[in-house]
Design a protein that fits this description.
The chain has about 500 residues and is α/β, with parallel strands linked by helices. The protein has two domains: about 30-330, TIM Barrel, CATH 3.20.20; about 365-440, Up-down Bundle (Methane Monooxygenase Hydroxylase, Chain G, domain 1). Helices cover about 40% and strands about 15% of the residues. The protein contains 13 helices and 15 strands. The strands form four sheets. A nine-stranded parallel sheet has the order 5-4-3-2-1-13-12-9-6. Helix 5 packs across helix 6 (about 135-150) and helix 6 (about 135-150) packs parallel to helix 7 (about 185-195). The radius of gyration is 25 Å and the shape is globular. The relative contact order is 0.11. Its EC number is 3.2.1.39. It comes from Lupinus angustifolius. Keywords: Cell membrane, Disulfide bond, Glycoprotein, Glycosidase, GPI-anchor, Hydrolase, Lipoprotein, Membrane, Plant defense, Signal, Transmembrane, Transmembrane helix. It is an enzyme of class 3 (hydrolase). Belongs to the glycosyl hydrolase 17 family.
């Protein structure tokens, strides 16, 4: 009886202490992309995440600056491995061991980065890749898992692979008819079985925006959580939005293959604000507020009442990201490239979204088309081509925020984006005598079209987070001492 009483009390003590060790309260999760010509300092981005209650972040690569800034931040990290590394990691376990040592073990042990997942590849089974990465993905997952175990991190860090929703389908058009694509069925089952046995999650990216943007007949209201579209009825279940229907199509696919309890993460979901007609401030605010509301309420889907972790895509705009899928790719951020707010959001309890602090900019000057220049000048086309080859002109795309400008307005926007991207160099505003530098903001009044000024990469404070990190370590040590004291007292009462 004495041992049984001690054992019960010991377990109770551990439970109480484990609750005390939970890092903070409920928070949000986001994707942090780094394809930017003028990125904010990583410590500014991490502070922006913390100020807005983000407790989890997914990186698409093991970026040293981002990972260092996340050290001792209290933010849990999913670190990604790009697709172009899959082949080498799949064919050589030593390459996987080296990658884990450099990009996981190193940051956990030396810099206090709370890495929880390694995302092997990114949408590697996407149809548009034509099977390029299909055979390498699973062996790469296996080798990274083996490397994590070898490093003593097999329980702390879980492997996963973010997949696009196009890996599953429904012949009936209803969620209950979900199953995996026949061409990748075997690979999917192998990956799912391996992850399930490793107590690791599946990660899927779901994009209602893409469903709407790709199909002119798609019912727009079905893309939003508060839409007025007629529900899709599947047996006894009614679906009022595409996210629920899409997610439950995946769950049906898992159930059909014997993995109905497989843990799932939504790795990317969001709405862009520019680049095409459906990508605008109004739609993005409506969608993301609805998404935030669901996350706050811990709302699941008809097939899974327990909600998955949801990583909002994305946190901040990326002006150097590939636009192969569409011009909107550079505008997914909840925040602009400089951490300024695009639109207000209620983060729960009346807490508003807040902008980045301490951002430094280049001087308030713009490069525009000269008033004396002729819009019919034969050199204008070449000048526009040069500007938009090296700078982001996606806001000029049809249906975008600056698509209503006239010829001179288009030229001015393109010239300015090039000028800003080139750090306002004097020779960057020389377009065959067509351009001039001005200190008057050329942004059209009462418009969502903005002529940007870039972040000044040269004058940002370079204050390291060493002192902040030291303070956090001291606080952590104090907490551990208190918890150890409580642990000792409770154990003495148990004996």
């Amino acid at each position: 009886m004495g041992f049984q009483r001690f054992n019960t009390c010991f377990l109770l003590t551990l439970c109480i202490l484990s609750q005390g060790l939970v890092k903070g309260a409920f928070g949000f999760a986001c994707n942090w992309g780094l394809r930017s010509t003028h990125p904010l300092p990583p410590q500014v981005v991490v502070k922006l995440m913390k100020d807005n209650g983000f407790k989890q972040v997914k990186l698409f690569e093991a970026d040293p600056g981002a990972l260092k800034a996340l050290g001792n931040s209290g933010i849990q990290v999913m670190v990604g491995i790009p697709n172009d590394m899959l082949e080498s990691l799949a064919s050589n376990v030593n390459a996987a061991i080296a990658w884990v040592n450099q990009n996981v073990s190193n940051y956990i042990s030396k810099m206090g980065v709370d890495i929880r997942h390694v995302a092997v590849g990114n949408e590697a089974f996407l149809k548009t890749y034509n099977g390029r990465f299909v055979n390498a993905t699973f062996p790469a997952i296996q080798n990274i898992q083996a490397a994590l175990i070898k490093a003593g991190l097999g329980r702390q860090v879980k492997v996963t692979t973010p997949l696009n929703a196009d890996v599953y389908q429904s012949d009936s058009g209803l969620p209950s008819g979900g199953n995996f694509r026949p061409d990748i069925q075997d690979q999917m089952i192998s990956i799912i079985k391996f992850l399930y046995q490793s107590a690791a999650p599946l990660t899927f990216n779901i994009y209602p925006f893409l469903s709407l943007d790709a199909d002119p007949n798609f019912p727009k209201e079905f893309a939003f959580f508060d839409g007025s579209n007629a529900p899709v009825v599947d047996g006894s279940v009614s679906y009022t939005n595409v996210l629920d229907a899409n997610f439950d199509t995946l769950i049906s696919a898992l159930e059909k293959n014997g993995f109905g309890s497989m843990p799932v993460i939504i790795g990317e979901v969001g709405w862009p604000t520019d680049g095409t007609a459906n990508a605008n401030i109004k739609n993005a605010q409506r969608f993301n507020q609805g998404l935030i509301n669901r996350i706050i309420k811990r709302q699941g889907t008809p097939k899974r009442s327990t909600p998955p972790d949801i990583y909002v895509f994305g946190f901040i705009d990326e002006d150097a990201k590939s636009i192969e899928p569409g011009p909107f790719e550079r505008h997914w951020g909840m925040f602009n490239f400089d951490g300024s707010m695009k639109y207000p959001l209620n983060l729960g309890g009346g807490k508003p979204l807040v902008a980045a602090k301490g951002v430094k900019y280049l001087p308030k000057q713009w490069c525009v088309m000269s008033a004396q220049a002729n819009a019919m000048d034969p050199g204008l086309a070449d000048s526009l081509s040069k500007a938009c080859t090296y700078a982001d002109c996606t806001s000029l795309s049809p249906g975008s925020s600056c698509s209503g400008l006239d010829t001179k307005g288009n030229a001015s926007y393109a010239f300015n984006m090039y000028y800003q991207t080139m750090d306002q160099r004097k020779d960057a505003c020389q377009f065959n005598g067509l351009s001039v530098i001005t200190s008057i903001n050329p942004s059209p009044p009462q418009s969502t079209c903005h002529f940007e000024i870039m972040v000044d990469l040269g004058v940002h404070e370079t204050r390291t987070t060493t002192s902040m990190g030291a303070q956090k370590m001291e606080i952590h040590s104090m907490i551990m001492l208190v918890l150890s004291f409580i642990f000792t007292i409770m154990l003495s009462l148990c004996i």
